[in-house]
Specification:
With 293 residues, the protein is an alpha/beta fold. It has helices spanning 21-31, 47-50, 63-73, 96-100, 102-108, 113-126, 134-137, 155-171, 196-209, 240-248, 266-276, and strands spanning 12-16, 36-41, 55-58, 77-81, 130-132, 146-147, 179-183, 186-190, 220-223, 253-257, 279-283. Helix 11 links the parallel strand 10 and strand 11.
């Protein structure tokens, strides 16, 4: 049996959104000796990447197609991974199976992202599949604990991390976001629907407009899962692009919850941070509220 309890010959279905993470997961699973079948979301997944694997294209909402093709392929386990902008319910492609679940889908959309994803996961399980987290099948994509590059956070940075983590914990029940920026114990940005990159771009704009007077290399981007979220999907992620955006925003570094945040390019991210003079640290969950490494 595999580490996830499935027979070694049982392929893994990976529902792919945008970004590189789906293919990082696929390669890791293949490297562990398990076959994968990609269910690529049209308009999101990268065709040039998808074609390297056994795959099927699908549109959002085609639950019947997913169930039928996954069963034909012998898939029992499913992973949802990759960036995806929350669609309007009218953008879903309904098939007969989806229509059967329509009342539950309508209720799922009446709430935040965690509310939506939790109810979608229950529908997937009711279709006869087991939903797994990407980190369960590819644990190497989790950011490890400790200082990850040449640069270390200062005492001021640790204090900012503590403030950020306390804020993220307090925001959890409201299903808002998974990232904040704190500088000198002052919260200067909170992630909402725009995502981390646009949140950081907003800081760049505030600096340019003179609305935010901060010296460079001050402030920390803090990312962590919501306290009560289902970690099988929508874990926060970081990468070299995050480092570039944090550097452009004039921050001192990035702190994430160790083994609670994903990265598709750990080595590249660390090189980018070293080159930009930023620190990157993974903080164990039991220390994260204190901002300690």
């Amino acid at each position: 049996m595999s580490s996830t309890g499935s027979p070694p010959g049982d392929p893994l279905a990976i529902v792919c959104g945008a970004g590189n993470m789906p293919y990082r997961v696929a390669d890791a699973v293949i490297g562990r000796g398990r076959r994968v079948v990609l269910f690529a979301l049209a308009g999101w997944a990268d065709p040039a990447q998808v074609k390297r694997y056994r795959h099927h294209w699908m549109r959002l909402g085609q639950l019947g197609r997913v169930r039928r093709v996954a069963r034909q392929e012998g898939c029992r386990d499913i992973v949802l991974i990759g960036a995806l902008t929350r669609p309007a319910i009218t953008q879903l492609r309904f098939d007969l199976t989806t229509l059967m679940f329509l009342p539950r889908i309508i209720k799922a959309f009446a709430g935040g992202d965690d509310h939506l994803l939790t109810r979608v996961s229950r529908i997937i399980e009711d279709l006869g599949f087991r939903l797994l987290g990407a980190h369960e099948v590819a644990p190497d994509i989790l950011v490890p604990a400790g200082q990850l590059g040449r640069h270390a956070p200062s005492a001021r940075d640790h204090a900012d991390v503590a403030v950020g983590r306390a804020l993220l914990a307090a925001m959890g029940p409201f299903d808002i976001g998974q990232a904040v920026v704190v500088a000198g114990n002052r919260v200067i940005a909170v992630e909402a629907a725009e995502g981390t990159d646009r949140m950081l771009a907003r800081i760049v704009q505030l600096r340019g407009d003179g609305a935010l007077a901060l010296p460079t290399k001050v402030g920390v981007l803090i990312k962590a899962p919501k306290p009560s979220q289902d970690r099988r999907f929508d874990l926060p992620s970081v990468g070299a692009r995050t480092v570039e955006a944090a550097a452009a925003a004039g921050l001192a570094g990035i702190a994430v919850e160790a083994r609670g945040v994903l990265t598709a390019d750990l080595d590249e991210m660390v090189r980018a941070a070293d080159g930009a003079g930023l620190f990157v640290v993974g903080i164990p969950a039991d220390n994260v509220a204190r901002g300690q490494p």
